[in-house]
Amino acid sequence: MIVTIASGKGGTGKTTLAVNLALSFGRPVQLLDCDVEAPNDHLFLRPRITASNPAGIPVPRIDPEVCSACGDCAALCQFNALAVLQDRVLVFDELCHGCGGCLLVCPEGAVTEVLRPIGVVERGHAGAVRVVQGRLDVGEPQSPPLIREVIRHADRDGVVLIDAPPGTSCPMINAVRGSDLVLLVTEPTPFGLNDLTLAVEAVRALGLPCAVILNRSDCGDRRVHEYCAAEDIEILLEIPDDRRIAEASTRGECAVDAVPELRPVFERLARRIEEVVADAQPMAMEGVRFRADI
Amino acid sequence: MKVVVTSSGKSLDAAVDPRFGRAPQFICVDTATGETTVVDNTAGVSAAQGAGVQAAETVARLGADCLLTGHCGPKAFRALEAANIPVYVGASGTVADALQQLEKGRLERATKPDVGGHWA
Fold first, then answer.
1. Is the pLDDT of residue A218 over 80?
2. Nearest CA to CA, how far is B58 from chain A (Å)?
3. How many residue pairs bridge chain A and chain B with CB atoms within 8 Å of each other?
4. What is the pLDDT along chain B (120 residues), one digit of tens a residue?
5. Of A1, A83, A101, B11, which one has the fewest beta carbons inside 10 Å?
6. What is the phi-psi region of residue B34: left when phi exceeds 0, alpha when psi lies from -120 to 50, beta otherwise?
7. For residue B117, what is the nearest residue in chain A, using CA coordinates?
8. Do residues A23 and A75 share a domain?
9. Residue A228 has pLDDT above 80, yes or no
10. For residue B117, which residues of chain A lie inside 8 Å, CB to CB?
11. Does A74 lie at the interface with B, CB-CB under 8 angstroms?
12. From the list A81, A83, A95, which residue is nearest B57 (CB)?
């Protein structure tokens, strides 16, 4: 099963939840850190990295001998990565999203692809947790291809936890799609509620079941509770605002180690997640397909 | 000579839009005949990315001999260079003002992009 930890708002506790949950299933877990702009799970789990592979985006190269400058490729490209000027096709690698459409549409067969590196996928292990993490190159604007490359390592037969990037745009969508359950981490504040609402709308549009983890649950107000009740979304866990958890985080320690009474709490959460996934009705996925699936 | 000016409106009285890729209009003026053509750039204004590249293609299609604008970034510059269209940056005031500035030699012909890209 694949369980993805996401949130509309950043800084709600995705990493904290991901690493502590990874230690609480009582069996080996695979943790995929897809927050590739800031992969932080390793700071807590300290995995021994045993493999590191470059990942990239396939970008077009045009053979000028074969190209007839018909412009079909540039007309198709929704990202303006191709332009025909003076009967020559210019390619802007940094704008290309690697869809491969230009290659398909070229009537002359003038397009080939080369890989433009955008980051690395690192694999390793920390005890019973197998870690796969993406690390995006500094300054690189496009993270989805790297996120898909990390998820390609998911071993669905076991427990897979995905630590998603924050927000509700392409990186988050790429991390959550294909999940059996999405855990949305939020906090009981107006910001938390606003961004939770956006995240719920996003995962529902993808046909994915979701549940809420409420962090720092004893601060703020009751509006997240009211929203979840109205929307029939289960709050699987409420984590109180506890200085000891914050202190452990700043030291790079896992909360279940630093605050012993949290360990059974997370173990119950892990069991409850397995029940929820087992009970979830298989939902029809939207007909969105990505090149990565082909 | 056909001169394209990036404009915030559809007439010569409109203010120059200093942005190239995301200017709402391009005004093409044939300096020999005084004939003007207005080209809408909604596609560029709403483009998620690559507005400058797309705008360069539009300007090239107009058969422009040169471009007057406020600023020109690296990708647009590369595209305009490939199209052999000289870029004059620093145009200001109305479109008519910009044309005068060109005539009086007050605009500087860009030899490289004068601003950074938005993506890197």
1. yes
2. 10
3. 51
4. 999 999 999 999 999 999 999 999 999 999 999 999 999 999 999 998 999 999 999 999 999 999 999 999 999 999 999 999 999 999 999 999 999 999 999 998 999 999 887 754
5. B11
6. left
7. A94
8. no
9. yes
10. 94
11. yes
12. A83
Distance CA B43, CA A41 (A): 41
Burial of A213 (0-12, 13-18, 19+ CB in 10 A): buried
Residue A77: give its domain's CATH number: 3.30.70.20
Domain count of the fold of chain A: 2
* Domain assignment of residue A64, yes or no: yes
User: What are the tens digits of pLDDT across the range A148-181?
Assistant: 999 999 999 999 999 999 999 999 999 999 999 9
Nearest CB to A80 within list B54, B78, B82: B54
Query: Do residues A185 and A165 touch, judged by C-beta distance below 8 A?
Result: no
Nearest CA in chain B to A142: B119
CA pair distance B116, A90, nearest whole angstrom: 19
Q: How many Å is the Cα radius of gyration of chain B? A: 13
Domain boundary among A93, A117, A141: A117
Q: Name the token pair of B30.
A: 């044939």
A183 & A236 share domain: yes
Pairwise CB contact (< 8 Å): B79 & A139: no
- pTM here is 0.81
Closest CA to B39 of B60, B13, B70: B60
Q: Would you give the end-to-end CA distance of chain B in angstroms?
A: 35
